[in-house]
Specification:
This protein is mainly alpha-helical. It has helices spanning 5-22, 25-32, 36-63, 72-100, 102-106, 109-134, 136-141, 146-169. It has one domain (24-172). The longest helix has 29 residues, at 72-100. Bound molecules: protoporphyrin IX containing FE (HEM).
Length: 176
């Protein structure tokens, strides 16, 4: 993809950092022990299944098609802790995969898009958690909240799916 001069300059710095990182003993261990990368990838995928499952449960509740007998606050109490712990494991395993092949990830446009979408979904999820905690009666009972809840569910599901696609797509895009 064509980049402007400022981007190229930033890519050069990131490239130099990547070369330094991939020559560190830490990165070299991950690169040379053949079992490490597939083991980390497997943990990454297990965390993906936990995070997607939990997000889908909350979003189906917001859409009004699942857990009709319980409240949005209940769904948040049950599933948000799984989302945050899985995100911690994804960050850790994702950082290890990046440390193993920094150029492949840090200079890859799809990897960058994925990181941007993750920042977006973390901000939206944290804001949602905060507003439901402060205002649980309205979220649980006010019919006026139905439309915003549905839009939030569809929007956040779309972002989660986009992140998942980006994760797999990184391998098929040229990098520096
Ligand atoms: C939180 C920070 C995260 C980081 C730093 C990260 C980083 C990475 C890296 C470096 C890869 C390897 C890509 C490659 O070289 O082919 C990867 C793969 C992947 N990631 Fe993430 N990731 C994160 C979160 C997520 C999330 C939240 C999801 C989905 C909801 C996700 C889904 C995937 C998928 C599906 C793959 C493909 C795995 C494979 O093909 O073996 N990641 N991730």
């Amino acid at each position: 993809m064509q980049h402007s001069a400022a981007w190229l300059d930033m890519d050069r710095v990131i490239g130099e950092f990547s070369d330094w990182l991939s020559a560190t003993p830490f990165s070299l261990v991950i690169q040379t022990q053949e079992w490490i990368i597939p083991a980390i990838q497997s943990m990454h995928i297990m965390a993906v299944s936990v995070i997607m499952g939990s997000a889908i449960m909350i979003d189906l509740k917001l859409l009004g098609v699942a857990a009709r007998g319980s409240s949005i606050s209940d769904a948040n109490r049950r599933f948000l802790p799984w989302i945050w712990s899985a995100m911690g494991l994804l960050l850790l395993t994702g950082a290890l995969l990046t440390a193993a092949e920094p150029r492949r990830e840090l200079l890859n446009d799809i990897f960058r898009l994925k990181m941007g979408l993750i920042l977006l979904i973390v901000a939206v999820t944290a804001a949602f958690q905060h507003t439901v905690r402060r205002n649980s009666a309205a979220w649980d009972e006010d019919p006026g909240k139905k439309m915003p809840a549905r839009l939030l569910a569809i929007g956040s599901l779309a972002v989660w799916v986009a992140i998942l696609f980006c994760g797999r797509w990184i391998a098929y895009v040229e990098h520096g």
